[in-house]
C-alpha cells in the first residue's frame, strides 16, 4: 500500500510556538536592557516608552502567529481528509495499484492486487521481484520499459503473466520523484484483461468466420436499407450470379435486380417481412445481360446499433426448377404412356409399397380398389395369386426376383380360368445404379396364343382332317430316322390310298367327300399309338409313320403288318355320311370304301426320306394292282 503522507501541519504549529517563545525571550531581554539604561540615565519616561513599543510589537506578532495557527489547522484537516479519500480510492479500486522500489521489487499493493494474485496479506508480495511475474516472451520488453521508467519516462503496456494460467495484464510505470526531481520509486496500475482479450479473440474469429462465409458462400447475401432499398453490401456470389460488379450494385436499388416486383411491391414485402419476423419465398431476378434467374430467398430484418437492416440470402434454383419441370414433364409422359399402354403395369418400391399402377392392371386382375388404396403390396399379391393355376411356383418366382434385385424376368402364366398372362419384370434403377424397386408388366396373350396355335396348325396340320401335313410329316420322319440310328430300332412308313373315293365325290360333291376324309382320318388315328404320326399327304392319300418297332427286322415287319391290317379292316366298315339335300333336309349316305396300303421299313438312316416315301408309294401301287384293299411291303431285293 502507498506510504502515509508526513504530518506537515504539526511541524508548522511547533515552529510557530517556538517563535512565540523566542519573541518572549527577546522582549524579556529588551526589558532587562531598558531597565539597565534607565538606571544609568535616570529617565523613567524613556523606559516607559520602550516598554510600550515592545508590547505592541509582541501583541502584533502574537496575532499573526495565532492567525497562522488557525490557517495551519484548516490546511491540516483538508490534508487529512484528502489522504483518507485517496486511501479509500486506492484500497477500493478494482485495479491493482502497487509501488516498485528502485531495486525492481514490489514494496506495496492494494487489496485488489492481492486478490488478483490470490494472496491474503500484503507482506506476501512485498519484496517480490516485479519481472518474475512476467512471462518469458514479454520479460525482455518489460525490463526495457522498467529501465526507462527509472530514467523518468512513463509507459503503458500489456504482457502475459508467468505461471500456468497465463493471465494477460494491462499496466503502466509512473515514476515518482522527490523534491530534488530524482526518481525515488515507481507507481504501477495493473488491470486483468484476460477475459476481455478472450472475448476480443472470439470476436475476431467470428468476424473472420463471417467474412469467410460472406465472401465464399455459394448463396447470394445482400444487406439492404429497408427504407430506401439501396444495397449497402453484397457478397461475391451476388456479383457472379447477376453479372454486376460490386461497385455497380452498391449504386443500385433492390428493384433494379427484380424481374417482376417494383419499388412499391418490394416495400410492402419488407413491411410484411418485419411484421411476420422473416420470410421465405420464391422470386425471379434479372441479370445484367437480361437473363432471368429463379431464386429462393430467406429475408429478415435485423436491428444493429439501433438501425434496421434488411438481410437477404438467396440461391439460384434455375437449374433445379428446370430439372423439376423436366421431371414433371417426363412423369406426365410416363403417366400418359402408362395409362395408354396395353399392358397392365404395377410399380413397387424397395420397401414393398405400391408406387404406381394403371387402369389396365385393375381390369386385368380385378383387384379391389380398397386394396390398392392402402399401397400395401402383400394383399394385392395375394389377390393375384388366387387366380394363378400354379400359385406356389408363382410365389417362388416373385420371391426369387425380389431377392435377386438385378435380374429380369419374362414368363407366361396360366390362370385357373384358362387365360394366359405374359409377365415381364425388371428392376427400377437410377442413372447411378441405385435400386428403387421393381416394375411388373402383365398382358393377356390368350388370344395371341390361340392365334399362334392356329398359325401353327395351318403350318403343320391339314385344315380338313387336323392330321399332320406333309411338312410336319417330314419333320417327324427326320426325328424318327435320327432315333433309329441312335437305338438301332426299325421304323416303318405306310402309304394309303383310298379305293372307290372318286365316285362318291362325283355323285355327292366335295362336301360329302370331305366328310369321308375326316372319318377316314379318325379311324386311322384310332389304330396307331400316340407316338406314331398320321398325316394326310394330299387328296385321298394318307401316310402313317411308325417309330421304335424292334431291332429285329422280321419282328418289325410283323409289327408293321399288324398295324397295317388293323387300318385296312377299319376302313372297310361302312361309312354313314350325313348331307343336306336341296330341300334343306338331311340325308345319310352309306358308302363302302377300302384302302390300298404300301409299307416300307427303315433303320439307321440307310436311306433318305424321299427314298423311304418313294418305297412306300411303290408298295401302295403294287397293292392297287393286286386288286385293291390289300397290303404290300417294299422289297428292295425284288
Describe this entry's structure for a reader.
This protein is an alpha+beta fold and 638 residues long. It is 48% helix and 24% strand. A hairpin with a 5-residue loop joins strand 13 (409-414) and strand 14 (420-429). The radius of gyration is 66 Å and the shape is rod-shaped. It starts with 7 loop residues before the first helix and ends in a 5-residue tail after the last strand.
Architecture blueprint of SSEs:
Elements: H1 8-41, H2 44-92, E1 96-100, E2 106-109, H3 111-117, H4 136-150, E3 155-160, E4 168-177, E5 183-192, H5 194-216, E6 220-224, E7 231-234, H6 236-242, H7 246-250, H8 263-276, E8 279-286, E9 292-304, E10 307-316, H9 318-340, E11 344-349, E12 354-357, H10 359-365, H11 369-373, H12 377-385, H13 391-403, E13 409-414, E14 420-429, E15 435-444, H14 446-460, H15 470-487, E16 491-499, H16 502-508, H17 510-526, E17 533-538, E18 541-546, H18 553-572, E19 575-580, E20 586-591, E21 594-602, H19 609-625, E22 631-633
Parallel strand pairs: 21-22
Antiparallel strand pairs: 1-2, 1-5, 3-4, 4-5, 6-7, 6-10, 8-9, 9-10, 11-12, 11-15, 13-14, 14-15, 16-18, 16-21, 17-18, 19-20
Helix pairs in contact: 1-2, 16-17
Largest sheet: 5 strands, antiparallel
Helix content bin: 40-55%
How confident overall, as mean pLDDT?
A: 86
Rg, please? 66 Å
Q: How would you briefly describe this protein structure?
A:
The protein is α+β, with helices and mostly antiparallel strands. A 5-stranded antiparallel sheet has the order 2-1-5-4-3, with helices on both faces. A 5-stranded antiparallel sheet has the order 7-6-10-9-8, with helices on both faces. Strands 12-11-15-14-13 form a 5-stranded antiparallel sheet, with helices on both faces.
Amino acid at each position: 500500500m502507498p506510504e502515509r503522507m508526513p504530518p506537515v501541519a504539526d511541524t508548522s504549529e511547533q515552529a510557530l510556538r517556538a517563535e512565540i517563545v523566542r519573541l518572549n525571550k527577546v522582549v524579556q531581554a529588551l526589558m532587562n536592557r531598558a531597565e539597565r539604561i534607565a538606571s544609568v540615565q535616570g529617565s523613567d519616561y524613556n523606559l516607559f516608552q520602550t516598554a510600550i513599543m515592545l508590547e505592541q510589537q509582541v501583541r502584533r506578532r502574537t496575532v499573526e502567529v495565532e492567525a497562522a495557527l488557525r490557517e495551519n489547522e484548516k490546511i491540516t484537516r483538508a490534508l487529512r481528509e484528502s489522504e483518507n479519500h485517496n486511501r479509500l480510492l486506492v484500497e477500493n479500486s478494482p485495479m491493482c495499484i502497487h509501488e516498485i522500489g528502485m531495486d525492481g521489487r514490489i514494496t506495496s499493493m492494494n487489496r485488489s492486487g492481492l486478490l488478483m494474485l490470490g494472496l491474503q496479506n500484503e507482506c506476501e508480495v512485498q519484496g517480490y521481484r516485479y519481472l518474475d511475474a512476467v512471462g518469458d516472451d514479454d520479460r525482455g520488453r518489460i525490463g526495457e520499459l522498467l529501465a526507462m521508467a527509472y530514467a523518468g519516462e512513463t509507459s503503458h503496456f500489456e504482457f502475459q503473466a508467468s505461471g500456468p494460467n497465463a493471465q494477460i495484464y494491462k499496466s503502466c510505470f509512473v515514476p515518482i520523484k522527490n523534491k530534488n526531481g530524482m526518481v525515488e520509486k515507481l507507481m504501477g496500475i495493473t488491470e486483468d484483461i484476460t477475459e476481455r482479450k478472450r472475448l476480443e479473440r472470439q470476436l475476431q474469429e467470428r468476424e473472420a468466420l463471417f467474412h469467410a462465409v460472406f465472401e465464399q458462400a455459394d448463396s447470394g447475401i445482400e444487406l439492404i436499407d429497408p427504407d430506401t432499398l439501396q444495397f449497402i453490401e453484397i457478397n461475391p456470389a451476388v456479383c457472379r450470379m447477376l453479372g454486376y460488379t460490386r461497385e455497380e450494385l452498391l449504386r443500385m436499388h433492390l428493384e433494379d435486380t427484380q424481374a417482376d416486383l417494383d419499388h412499391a411491391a418490394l416495400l410492402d414485402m419488407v413491411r410484411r417481412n418485419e411484421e411476420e419476423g422473416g420470410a421465405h419465398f420464391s422470386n425471379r431476378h434479372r441479370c445484367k445481360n437480361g437473363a432471368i434467374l429463379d431464386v429462393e430467398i430467406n429475408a429478415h430484418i435485423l436491428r444493429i446499433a439501433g438501425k434496421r437492416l434488411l438481410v437477404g440470402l438467396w440461391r439460384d434454383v434455375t437449374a433445379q426448377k428446370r430439372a423439376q419441370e423436366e421431371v414433371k414433364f417426363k412423369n406426365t409422359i410416363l403417366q400418359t404412356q402408362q395409362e395408354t399402354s396395353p399392358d397392365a403395369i404395377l410399380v413397387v418400391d424397395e420397401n414393398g409399397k405400391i408406387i404406381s399402377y394403371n387402369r389396365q392392371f385393375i381390369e386385368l386382375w380385378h383387384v379391389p380398389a380398397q386394396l390398392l388404396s392402402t399401397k400395401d403390396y402383400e394383399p394385392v399379391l395375394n389377390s393375384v395369386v388366387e387366380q394363378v393355376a400354379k400359385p406356389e411356383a408363382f410365389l417362388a418366382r416373385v420371391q426369387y426376383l425380389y431377392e435377386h434385385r438385378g435380374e429380369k424376368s419374362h414368363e407366361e402364366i396360366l390362370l385357373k380360368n384358362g387365360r394366359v398372362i405374359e409377365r415381364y419384370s425388371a428392376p427400377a434403377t437410377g442413372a447411378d445404379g441405385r435400386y428403387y424397386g421393381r416394375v411388373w408388366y402383365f398382358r393377356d396373350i390368350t388370344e395371341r396364343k390361340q392365334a399362334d396355335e392356329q398359325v401353327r396348325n395351318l403350318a403343320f396340320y391339314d385344315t380338313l382332317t387336323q392330321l399332320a401335313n406333309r411338312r410336319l410329316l417330314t419333320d417327324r420322319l427326320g426325328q424318327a430316322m435320327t432315333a433309329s440310328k441312335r437305338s438301332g430300332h426299325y421304323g416303318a412308313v405306310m402309304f394309303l390310298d383310298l379305293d372307290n373315293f372318286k365316285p362318291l365325290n362325283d355323285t355327292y360333291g366335295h362336301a360329302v367327300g370331305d366328310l369321308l376324309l375326316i372319318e377316314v382320318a379318325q379311324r386311322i388315328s384310332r389304330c396307331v399309338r400316340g407316338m406314331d404320326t398320321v398325316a394326310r399327304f394330299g387328296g385321298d392319300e394318307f401316310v402313317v409313320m411308325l417309330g421304335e418297332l424292334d431291332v429285329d427286322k422280321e419282328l418289325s415287319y410283323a409289327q408293321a403288318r399288324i398295324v397295317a391290317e388293323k387300318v385296312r379292316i377299319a376302313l372297310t366298315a361302312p361309312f354313314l355320311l350325313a348331307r343336306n339335300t336341296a330341300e334343306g333336309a338331311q340325308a345319310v349316305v352309306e358308302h363302302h370304301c377300302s384302302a390300298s396300303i404300301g409299307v416300307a421299313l427303315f433303320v439307321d438312316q440307310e436311306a433318305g426320306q424321299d427314298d423311304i416315301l418313294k418305297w412306300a408309294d411303290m408298295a401302295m401301287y403294287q397293292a392297287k394292282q393286286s386288286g385293291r384293299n390289300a397290303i404290300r411291303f417294299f422289297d428292295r431285293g425284288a
